[in-house]
User: What shape does this take?
Amino acid sequence: MAQAAAVAKPPAPPRRRRASATPRRLPYLLIAPAALLMLGFIAYPVLSVFYYSLHEYNPTKPWRNGFTGFDNFVHAFTEDPLFWDTLVFSAKWVFVEVGLQLLFGLALALIVNQTFVGRALGRALVFSPWAVSGVLTSAIWVLLYNSQTGITRYLADVGIGSYGTSWLSDTSTVFPAAIVADLWRGVPFFAILILADLQSVSKDLYEAAEVDGAGRLKQFWHITLPHLKDAIVLSTLLRAVWEFNNVDLLYTLTGGGPAGVTTTLPLYIANTSVDAHNFGYASALTTVAFVILLFCSMVYLRLSKFGGEDK
Assistant: This one.
């Protein structure tokens, strides 16, 4: 009997083998090279800027180099009037540029979203300026604003203005001229993002609104704009950061002049580091610009309730 019970006893289940940790770590091992490159090319320069912002660092005057603490920041806020002038102009530049680009980009997106003959060609022409590099855009507008061969000469031919007028050399016209040049390239960015979001709006919403007697304006205000909210918030935030850091267009068009009236904070930083070789003070100004952009971005996203549901 004991022998029969022993034979009838089911065999013990096999012991589970310990799962290998290699498959779970494989994704991290695969992205490790890219992560190390990002640390090397992004994290290290950023940390270097923070480090040098606390130092006096000028390669042409090595005997003055050394740790200075917060002296660079104190100098920027209390002793450098150019810092405040460039910061005010940067805010003005970003506000005007982003506002106008959003307005014209929204209008263009609504136009090319309609059905008409040659719509594909129209979209290509609208979006083509965004494919042009910033330096090339600047070169195009430098030629257009040339006092001898540009727009002002043809306007003088029809009796508007006088010959030899340069809009980029006059403090009263240089800002609008620079605004128009940057609008030409910046408007398609908003048009592309907004048009992409317009494609996802259900036609049934507009049909139901028409049945209820809502006109075009009410449809735009209550259907189109709420649907475009996240796209508008994201595009304005991205464009504001890019416009704040805009150096190539203003540097090529005006060089920050005339009389420094078009010098933004990033352009002032570039001149301080490249021309004056004062990398310590330029790093401090860069740190200030970083904090300003980070704070404004967080406040903007919080106030706009980006990604949240509208109540």
In short: Residues 14 and 20 are 17 Å apart (CA to CA). The chain has 14 helices and two strands. Strands lie at 55-56, 66-67.
